[in-house]
Write a structure and sequence with these properties.
Number of strands: 10
Structural class: alpha+beta
Strand content: 25-35%
Oligomer: single chain
Strand order of the largest sheet: 8-7-6-9-10
Distance between the termini: 35 Å
CATH class of the largest domain: Alpha Beta
Number of helices: 6
Number of domains: 2
CATH superfamily of the largest domain: Ribonuclease H-like superfamily/Ribonuclease H
CATH topology of the largest domain: Nucleotidyltransferase, domain 5
Shape: globular
C-alpha cells in the first residue's frame, strides 16, 4: 500500500469557508456523506492550490454539461424536486435528529433537534463557536430531550462527533478543545447511564439531508 504523503487537508465547508485538518482519518470522517470539496498536500498552501484547481476543473465540466440531457445524480433525476423524490426503503422510521448550523467556522452558530418529519423540538443559538462545538451541543441536548420524553433512537450526520464521542480523543488542531471535551464527557456519561439510547449515524447519501438540517447547503 502506498504511503499517504499528505500532511494537511483543506475542506471547503461552504463557499469561501475552509477547514484545515492535520490527519486523514478526521478529514475522512468529516467529508463522508457530505458534498464537501477537499484536497491534501504537504502544507496548507499546497492543499489549497489542489482544491482550487480541482474546483476549477469541475466547474468547467459543469458548464459543458448544461446543454445536454438531464443527468442522474446518485440515482435521482435532476428534474424531480428533492422533497418529492421517493424515500429509500431503509429510510429511518423512528427517532429524533440533531444538526448544527454555522455562519463561518468559527462563527455565529446554532443547533436544532427535530422529529423525522422536521418538526422542531429544540432550538438554540449558541453565539460564536466552531461547527463541531455546535454539533456536540445539539447532540447533548437531544440526549437530554430523549431521556425526558422516552425517545431511544437518536440521529446525527456528524461522523466527527461520533468518532470523538466513541474514542474520547481529540486531534491536536481541534479548536475549543477544553469546552468540547467537557461536552464529550457529559454525553458519554448520559449514554452510559441510559443504555437504552442508541446514537446512530444519519446516512446522507442514501436518505438525503437529515430532517434537522438548516437548509443552507
Amino acid at each position: 500500500m502506498a504511503k499517504n504523503k499528505n500532511k494537511v487537508y483543506v475542506v471547503e465547508i461552504s463557499p469561501g469557508n475552509y477547514k484545515t485538518i492535520d490527519n486523514w482519518p478526521e478529514c475522512q470522517a468529516l467529508v463522508h456523506g457530505k458534498p464537501y470539496a477537499y484536497a491534501g498536500g504537504k502544507d496548507r498552501a499546497g492543499a489549497m492550490a489542489k482544491l482550487k484547481a480541482g474546483k476549477k476543473k469541475r466547474n468547467a465540466g459543469l458548464r459543458k454539461g448544461f446543454a445536454g440531457a438531464p443527468k442522474k445524480v446518485h440515482g435521482g433525476n435532476l428534474n424531480v424536486p428533492k422533497k418529492n423524490r421517493p424515500r429509500a426503503p431503509d429510510y429511518p422510521k423512528v427517532g429524533i435528529t440533531s444538526d448544527a448550523g454555522t455562519h463561518g467556522n468559527p462563527g455565529p452558530c446554532e443547533y436544532q433537534v427535530t422529529d423525522l418529519n422536521g418538526k422542531v423540538l429544540l432550538h438554540k443559538k449558541l453565539g460564536v463557536h466552531t461547527n463541531n462545538y455546535a454539533e456536540l451541543a445539539g447532540i447533548g441536548n437531544m440526549i437530554q430531550y430523549a431521556v425526558k420524553h422516552g425517545e431511544t433512537v437518536l440521529w446525527t450526520d456528524s461522523a466527527v462527533a461520533m468518532i470523538w464521542i466513541k474514542s474520547a480523543k481529540l486531534g491536536p488542531a481541534v479548536r475549543e478543545k477544553e469546552s468540547i471535551m467537557k461536552m464529550i464527557q457529559k454525553i458519554r456519561k448520559l449514554l452510559a447511564d441510559h443504555p437504552e439510547l442508541e446514537l446512530r449515524k444519519w446516512e446522507t447519501r442514501r436518505w438525503g439531508q437529515i430532517p434537522s438540517d438548516f437548509g443552507r447547503k
